[in-house]
Specification:
Length: 724
């Protein structure tokens, strides 16, 4: 019975081992994956070798640099692709080594299981042989017992009347016979159970062999399918390699053709370069000889003046007339130069990337510049490059002085009696206020313009008398307000001048006469305190209104009595971003809606001027109505479009640059000069006299202030009162 129990335990362990083998037969899928990875790795190695050989050939071929060539970009893309393929090969090598190690481990385990299965089968065969021998012994024992039983029966029958000893021996024999019969019956039952166990063991063995045969057939079928797939993949790979090689040959041919064209162009440019060099050397010699000629001319003039001072006195009036004529001719040439550059000139300025822009892909730079043309700007919008051509483009490295040098020619026209308008346009946070106003250490266009006007006035002080007055206003929620008045919240209106000139003016707008830089700083400080700024998602100090600085320059020629009046409008527009993007809510939302409405009206005016429509909708907004003189041919106008270079603002930047291109295409015609002989008009006299007689600001009657507002402290206004 102990052997039978051992045999049962071995059969159970063999069944468990067979189940484990069934679960581990999935290792064939790993082997298949490993083979596929090996094939793919070999393919990638061959492709890498081919790309490396092509790269070495390209490096060996001397190719001149071709900036902007699309094939150089494709070559860079091929290099990136090669590096990606090398990384992929390295990853596949690592994966292949891991799979090889795993397959090796599972192969070792499978071999160990097979050895254990063979040992179990051998032990089972030995146990079957022992059981069969034991069965034969049992049969022999039964046969011998059957052969011995009749004499015992016979003895029992024949010695029934013998002695008690015989009876006792007979009873003992009968008991022993009974015991032997019981043992025979027990052995028969054990034999029957062992035969059943042996039969079930044979059946289990047959099932296992059938499953093993089925697994082997599945492995053979999977191996055949894998070979077919590998063959098809090899064909696809060869076909793709041939196509790539043919395409690369075509591209290389095109590159060589472009290179030949570039070389031809270089050869044709060499004679022109030599000609320019000769011209430059000639001009250089002339410049070197110019001081000597100038000195000789000065000596001769001095000698003539010393010899004929009486003739000079008699001809003084004639010389003065010629001098004035030359001065007028110089002004005419200067203004003609400004006019030829365009009545509405458009320049762009790109601000630098700051910490407020954040980090990551959204803070990446999306604006580039043309190294050969400072009027071209490139924008990368949604992965596509877009180019714009303006009059001038300033990079983030440009200083405030660089920007001012571009616009100072227009500002000097104001002294000659022309109307000039400079306005900054762009989204919130793009740098409009910085360009127009700047900081105390690095001022912007506003303060530099007034400083330039002061220097020009001082240079002409011997022949001209000038007076400069300044006004500041803002358009907040479609309401015009005086930033320098006693009641900044008072609403002002735009009216036509009663003198019939068609010019616009604002009754009640305060004017301050400025005579030095300190007066300018006081006016700017007072205007800043009254301007409306709020926090938005795009700018911590966002301008929520359109700010206008109006500079009026009145001059009189002391010798002829000629009077001129020039006006300089410096406009800082509010941010031109979408309402949802600025994060405005409540009153901020209403402000943003009014800002967008006024900027939309400005766009409608530009569209009407561009298409030369008979009616231009200036009166659709206070902003366009106030800028009517600047946009209708009565002024020399320049627009500064501010640009944010980061990726997250590309949509607003694209809109701003498109609007700038539309503005640049508008033709307004030459602006007229406001000059007259004789006394000032009654209107101008009213505006002029208070500024000349007293340092107090001149202003017209104000309306009642709006509800919910408070007036500014008197200490701020006292700063603006020049000392007696």
């Amino acid at each position: 019975t102990v052997k039978v129990e051992n045999l049962k335990e071995k059969l159970i362990s063999q069944a468990q081992e067979v189940c484990r083998l069934r679960s581990e037969l999935g290792g064939t899928d790993l082997e298949k994956h490993r083979d596929l990875l090996m094939v793919e790795n070999e393919r990638l190695r061959q492709e890498m070798r081919r790309c490396e050989s092509e790269l070495q050939e390209l490096r060996a071929t001397p190719v001149a640099p071709c900036p902007g060539c699309e094939h150089s970009q494709e070559s860079a893309q091929l290099r990136d692709k090669l590096s990606q393929l090398q990384l992929e090969v390295a990853e596949n090598k690592g994966m292949l080594s891991e799979l090889n190690l795993e397959v090796q481990q599972k192969t070792d385990r499978l071999a160990e299981v097979e050895l254990r299965l063979k040992d179990c089968l051998a032990e089972k065969a030995q146990e079957e042989e022992r059981l069969s021998r034991r069965l034969r012994d049992s049969h022999e024992t039964i046969a011998s017992l059957r052969a011995l039983s009749p004499p015992v029966k016979y003895v029992i029958k024949t010695v029934e009347v013998e002695s008690p000893k015989t009876k006792q021996a007979l009873s003992e024999s009968q008991a022993r016979n009974q015991h032997l019969q019981e043992q025979v019956a027990m052995q028969r039952q054990v034999l029957k159970e062992m035969e059943q166990q042996l039969q079930s063991s044979h059946q289990l063995t047959m099932q296992l062999r059938a499953q093993i045969a089925m697994y082997e057939s599945e492995l053979e079928r999977a191996h055949g399918q894998m070979l077919e797939e590998m063959q098809s993949l090899e064909e696809d790979k060869n076909r793709a390699i041939e196509e790539a090689f043919a395409r690369a040959q075509v591209e290389m041919k095109a590159v060589h053709e472009n290179l030949a064209g570039v070389r031809t162009n270089l050869l044709t440019l060499q004679p022109a370069l030599r000609t320019l060099t000769n011209d430059y050397n000639g001009l250089k010699r002339q410049v070197r000889s110019f001081p000597l000629l100038l000195q000789e001319a000065l000596r001769s003039v001095k000698a003539e003046i010393g010899q004929a001072i009486e003739e000079v006195n008699s001809n003084n009036q004639e010389l003065l007339r010629k001098y004035r004529r030359e001065l007028q001719l110089r002004k005419k040439c200067h203004n003609e130069l400004v006019r030829l550059k365009g009545n509405i000139r458009v320049i762009a300025r790109v601000r630098p990337i700051t910490k407020e822009d954040g980090e990551g892909p959204e803070a990446a730079n999306a604006v580039t510049f043309d190294p050969d043309d400072d009027a071209i700007i490139h924008l990368l919008h949604k992965g596509k490059p877009v180019s714009f051509e303006l009059d001038k483009v300033f990079s983030p490295r440009a200083s405030q002085q660089d920007v001012f040098q571009e616009v100072q020619a227009l500002i000097t026209s104001c002294i000659d009696g022309f109307n000039v308008c400079i306005f900054a346009y762009g989204q919130t946070g793009a740098g409009k206020t910085y360009t127009m106003e700047g900081t105390h250490e690095n001022p912007g266009i506003n303060q530099r313009a007034l400083q330039l006007l002061f220097s020009e006035v001082q240079e002409k002080a011997s022949d001209w008398e000038y007076t400069i007055t300044v006004s500041a206003a803002e358009i907040y929620n479609e309401v015009l307000r005086d930033l320098l008045g006693k009641e900044p919240q008072e609403k002002l209106e735009i009216r036509l001048c009663p003198d019939g000139s068609g010019q616009l003016y604002v009754p009640g707008l305060t004017e301050f006469q400025v005579q030095c830089v300190d007066d300018i700083n006081k006016v700017f400080e007072f205007g800043h305190t009254n301007r409306t700024t709020e926090f938005t998602n795009l700018n911590e100090h966002s301008s929520r209104s359109h700010a206008l600085l109006i500079v009026t320059v009145r001059g009189m020629d002391c010798s002829t009595g000629l009077r001129t009046t020039g006006k300089l409008n410096l406009v800082d527009l509010a941010g031109s971003e979408r309402v949802g993007k600025s994060g405005a809510e409540g009153s901020r939302l209403r402000e943003a809606q009014h800002i967008n409405k006024s900027l939309s009206a400005l766009g409608d005016v530009i569209a009407a001027l561009r298409s030369r429509q008979g009616h231009v909708p200036f009166r659709n907004s206070k902003l366009t109505y106030l800028l009517q003189d600047s946009l209708s041919g009565d002024s020399k106008t320049l627009m500064v479009v501010q640009v944010s270079p980061v990726e997250k603002n590309t949509s607003e930047t694209l809109y701003s640059l498109k609007f700038a291109e539309r503005v640049r295409s508008v033709e307004l015609g030459p602006g007229p000069r406001r000059a007259e002989l004789g006394s000032w008009s009654s209107q101008e006299h009213l505006e002029w006299e208070p500024a000349c007689q007293t340092p107090q600001p001149s202003a017209r009657a104000h309306s009642a202030p709006s509800s919910g507002t408070t007036s500014r402290p008197g200490s701020i206004r006292r700063k603006l009162q020049p000392s007696a």
